[in-house]
Amino acid sequence: MDVNAAVAAAAAIAGVLTGVIAMLAFRWSEREQKRPTRSSLHTDAVLPPGVDTVLSVLRSSAVVLDEADAVVKASSAAYALGLVRGGKLAVEPMLQMARDTRRDGEIRQVELDLPRRGTGRGEALAVSARVAPLGSRLVLLLVEDLTEARRIEAVRRDFVANVSHELKTPVGALSLLSEAVMDASDDPEAVERFAGRMQIEATRLTSLVQELIDLSRVQNDDPLEDAEPVRVDELVAEAIDRCRHQAGTKQITMAAGGTADLHVWGNRGQLAAALGNLVENAVNYSPARTRVGIAARRVNAAGGEHIEIAVTDQGIGISDKDKERIFERFYRVDPARSRATGGTGLGLAIVKHVAASHGGEVTVWSAEGQGSTFTLRLPEAGAARDRAHQQPARSERAGGAGLDEEAGRSTPTSPESTAYETLPAPEVLP
């Protein structure tokens, strides 16, 4: 009996101890759950009410630092710019600004150039950083990316400088020629010669001003506001008429083919100007007694069917280093030749802007001594595409003479030239 009583007493004591331990563990667990975590201290308990919401809608990159310089809150843009790494502010000048502001409470602002992450070309990010106190313990850092604004400003400065130079040349020439006319007033032949030169410079000045106006218009206007289906054959005919005199002077034959029953969607005036610039360049940079070909076709693209209009010449060609820059404003492959032909260096820039604003693109294939092919790709008009789907399938054309073959040369390495081998024989327009 004594042994059994002892065992029962020991079991009772063990049960009581187990219950006490379980109760203590439960209370400790509840207390740990109610204790705020480090992240909740940073976001909920530390940040003033509403600040988190305000920071989430700011366009600037936002970073909130506590008294230990730890990041309490950072926007996704701050991480994208590389401002925050491993929970710390990674830009030492900004960190020092935050410490100074925490010490004296003054708002500070500075512009910095930061290295761009992930590139080995030494490119820099231009940013504007502004630091201000947020409550008694926190510091708010707002960072604005100024890289694109600075790039646009640099482009604007270059554009103004180029315009000033281009305008100064014909204006200066007109001033000198007018003085020469006055000095040679008693020499009719000299007056006539100088007057002819004045007409050339005045024409050049007029062309430059007009192309500046055209470039400004295509950059600022929305061409799709007045968009309409435009017949490709009409655009080609207008471009040929525009260059007929120059082509006749150099005995250049212009050939057009494959443009029937094709429509593009856009502003007729801008499209005509773009195609006219391509044809005019082809004529100006082609030797005498050669051919300029214009061909079009329908192609399938990711965004729907497009129309490709290719302008091929037998000119001097373009080097590889110049291909990357020919669409820049005022850039000329051969400045001396451009001045002789009256070129302003804006024609291809206008073509590029027109193509981009219409949802298309312009590309170039060229080889020195073999000529060039500029291809303008534009979305097809929706109504024309629907009509094309309703018509019965056309039989395949066979034996059609290619445009380059009709032009009297073969360019097997040109992707544009091989793409138009199935077009019908072009209509020769002398």
TrEMBL record:
InterPro entries: BphY/WalK/GraS-like, HATPase_C_sf, HATPase_dom, His_kinase_dom, HisK_dim/P_dom, HisK_dim/P_sf, Sig_transdc_His_kin-like_C. PROSITE patterns: HIS_KIN. CDD domains: HATPase, HisKA. Residues 410-420 have a biased composition (Polar residues). It is a multi-pass membrane protein. The lineage of its organism: Bacteria, Bacillati, Actinomycetota, Actinomycetes, Kitasatosporales. The chain crosses the membrane at residues 6-26. The keyword Nucleus does not apply. Its EC number is 2.7.13.3. Gene3D superfamilies: 1.10.287.130, Histidine kinase-like ATPase, C-terminal domain. It comes from the Bacteria. This is Sensor-like histidine kinase SenX3. GO terms for molecular function: ATP binding; phosphoprotein phosphatase activity; phosphorelay sensor kinase activity. Residues 383-397 have a biased composition (Basic and acidic residues).
